Amino acid sequence: MNALGRIMAVATAGLGAAWLAGGTATAATPLTAPTATVKAAAGAAVYNGSCGAGYAVVNSADIGRLGTVYLTYSATTGENCVVTVRAAKGAAVHMVASLGLGTNTADVIDDGYYTSYAGPVFLDGRGMCMSSRGEINGEVAGKNWTNCEARIR
Predict the structure, then answer these.
(1) Do you find a cis peptide bond into 120, omega within 30 degrees of 0?
(2) How far, CA to CA in Å, does 73 sit from each of 90, 106, 124, 152?
């Protein structure tokens, strides 16, 4: 499949996903939010609030079927927080929650053996883009160069 074909396939899949989720989309208007709650993807873990009051989820990345890494931000403190949450509690396994400035994911790290979550780790992010990383039992996920919007808050 050529590049244009891949773009069209992704666009078509996005319109189908919007329809399935109860949202709407047309070529002339942007996708509207679904009116009903959509069940989380398999393997996704629910954010557990461990960063504390006032922190809102900015983004997340599923770590295979094992769990999810969450990047949160507090507009009050200007701090970002990362927590890696397992989809299901169990015996302690190696987990990592890390957060960094720019594309560095290792400015602050919580690395250990946990039954449900790693972190939280905090970093002041006013005026900076952030990168986050989570690991559960050898599977890794994260996002680089995100939450840049916090620079203008």
Answers:
(1) yes
(2) 28, 18, 9, 13
Task: Beginning with the edge strand found earlier in the chain, give each strand of the sheet holding 93-101 in spatial order.
Answer: 108-114, 93-101, 130-136, 139-146
pLDDT tens column, 89-139:
999 999 999 999 987 777 999 999 999 999 999 999 887 899 999 999 999
Structure tokens belonging to residue 20? 């399935």
Q: In which residue are the tokens 């939280």 written?
A: 120
DSSP string, the chain: --HHHHHHHHHHHHHHHHHHHT----SSSPPPPPSSPPPPPTTPPPP--TT-TT-EEEEEEEETTTEEEEEEE-TTT-EEEEEEEESS--S-EEEEEEEEETT---SEEEEEEESSEEEEEEEE-TT--EEEEEEETTEEEEEEEE-GGGGG-
Structure tokens that stand for 105 in this block: 């994911």
Taking the model in full, what pTM does it have? Answer: 0.70
**Bridge partners (DSSP) listed for residue 84:** 69, 118
Cβ neighbours of 22 (radius 10 Å): 13
